[in-house]
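Per-residue structure
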Amino acid sequence: MKSSLLLLALPVLLLCSCTKEKAVGSEDLPATSTSYITTHFPDQTIVHAVKEFDDLQITYTVYLKNGVKIEFNQNGEVKEIKGNSALPDSVIPSAILAYVNAYYPSGYIKEWKPERTTQEVKLSNGITLEFDKNGNFLRIDD
């Protein structure tokens, strides 16, 4: 009896934990997200935005006209920024920007991912650098 109940409950649990996505308009984004875009990407328009529900977490993914993809958490804080060309200096913490400019002057930052205790940047030459939360260099990430 218990095993048959478990077998019945398993598909329901799997369906509940699935990711659900929904296209949204810019007016449906958190105010902090739209303010961030307006501040750091003033000449860009939002081409597409998606609201994703995943295990009680909400993520907004915004695609800009210039090909930049920005992921925000439900509070409108940046989770990741990816671009095909150089990201604006204003989105990169100053310590990280100074390090990259000093040690990789011919390259540029095309991705930035702030995490709980670290930050990663991917350079135009394919190198990924890891920094602590304060922007101090930790290592080259393979």
